[in-house]
């Protein structure tokens, strides 16, 4: 099992499951966790972080939906095989941006204008 170092700060506005998901996704997309590396069990990671098992399970479920991890019966949760390119990381960021746009009440045109402006400035 891979040594996974994650920290959760309950004082942040970001929910704990999202902190876990973001940190694990970062470890995977940066190559610090490689295809086939085993993640801690949901229960073990929850106990280590002082979180409910359902919180960690939600993070794992979202990582699986993004194609970053696979859950195997006997092997547990492992980093998915294949390339984890910048596209995967950017797609996750785009999903977070879309959620923030909706929560802010912005329309699609405004959201796209913000992206175009950001792309021009970099």
Automatic annotation (TrEMBL):
- Matching CDD domains: WHTH_GntR (cd07377)
Gene3D superfamilies xref list: Winged helix-like DNA-binding domain superfamily/Winged helix DNA-binding domain (1.10.10.10)
In terms of SUPFAM superfamilies, this protein maps to: Winged helix' DNA-binding domain
Keywords of the record, alphabetical order, are: DNA-binding, Transcription, Transcription regulation
User: Which positions fall inside the HTH gntR-type domain?
Assistant: 14-82
Q: Which InterPro entries match?
A: Tscrpt_reg_HTH_GntR, WH-like_DNA-bd_sf, WH_DNA-bd_sf
Q: Name the domain of life this protein comes from.
A: Bacteria
Under which name does UniProt file this protein?
GntR family transcriptional regulator
Which source organism does the UniProt entry give? Intrasporangium calvum
């Amino acid at each position: 099992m891979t040594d996974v170092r994650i920290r959760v700060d309950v004082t942040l506005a970001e929910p704990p499951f999202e902190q876990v998901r973001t940190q694990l996704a970062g470890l995977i997309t940066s190559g610090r966790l490689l295809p086939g590396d085993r993640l801690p069990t949901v229960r073990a990671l929850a106990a280590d972080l002082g979180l409910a098992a359902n919180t960690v399970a939600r993070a794992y479920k979202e990582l699986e939906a993004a194609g970053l991890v696979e859950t195997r019966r006997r092997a547990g949760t492992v980093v998915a095989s294949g390339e984890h390119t910048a596209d995967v990381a950017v797609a996750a960021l785009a999903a977070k941006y879309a959620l923030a746009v909706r929560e802010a009440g912005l329309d699609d045109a405004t959201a796209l204008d913000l992206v175009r402006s950001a792309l021009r400035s970099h």
